[in-house]
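# nightly structure sweep
# worker-07 picked up a monomer target from the shared queue
# config: single-sequence mode, recycle default, output format = structure tokens
# input follows
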Amino acid sequence: MSLKSRMFQSKRSRVIALTSAGLCLAATAGSAAVAAAPGGANAGHTQAAAIINADTSIVRSKGISSVTSPYAGRFCVRLDPVGLNVNEIIPIATLTTGGYPGQIYVHPGATSECGNRADTLLIVTTNSRDEPENKQFSLIIP
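# output follows
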């Protein structure tokens, strides 16, 4: 008996395989729809949060109005909540599996690279050689 015929011999194996395939398809279709615009995150008690792709598209977010990349490895993340000032917050940023290996740095206030705006945070990402490179990351502002 071949491996293929043994793999789906039981009903339970077939159900698990079909359910897994369906979930993968649903996740793929869902992520494409959400990436088009900010929003769609269930981020609990955070003021702002997001998963941001290397091309600046937003996978899902809360409290983020836009993301731009003026230079390689530089992201300007514009915050949405009224009164949220980058000079007063303590943001947390982490490279996701789509951004690894590399490093991520969060600038602690307004920067000229992002127009000196108090509502725009600078995130810097680099590759493993510490060279500027756009990387996927997540951002949380508690």
